[in-house]
Amino acid sequence: MTETLLELLPDYGAPFLGLVTLLSCLALPVPASLFMMAAGGFAAAGDLSLGLTILAALIGAVLGDQIGFLLGRGGSGVLQRLERRGGKQALALARATALTRERGNIAVFLSRWLLSPLGPYVNYAAGAARMRWHRFSLASLSGETVWVAIYIGLGAGAMDQFDTLWPMISDMLGLLAAVAVALLLVLRLGHLVQIHRQAHPRRRRADRG
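Above: the chain's sequence. Below: its structure in token form.
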């Protein structure tokens, strides 16, 4: 299916890429990073406009973030549906919620590109947590700019080695996801320790005595 969609990219160009990045930011299973790399390659070959490609990918990603944020804030029930489904989506949502509570706008920024598997769920969690819209939007725009620049730049600069590079990048994304899980576990442990200390202040003073 991915190969079929990639074949549509040269024909439908930048608007199609914008739609792909938008859908990926709503947790739909669309390999947006792969499409951006391919679009970068097509732009380097002269089949697409590089400027329009970058702009469309960025607009689609930012719009997807805004929609996810508004769905989370508006009480649409999307969070409840994800939790009821269980499995990977519910786990990703739980991780994203913990990360958003701990790190706020930094979590939004990093989840656009470094921890991108959590990105869509951070959008929902940030909205539900009533994060200030301007803080979310600024972090979203800056993070998505990094994401778009990295993958379109890779595609444009390494068009001849695209088939070789993509498996390596896929492995890297998997590693980043694993690192994200470990980081969230550490943050969660620190939060639990803090709660325990606040709940038992007398015991702590007695131990010092």
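Residues 34 and 169 are 9 Å apart (CA to CA).
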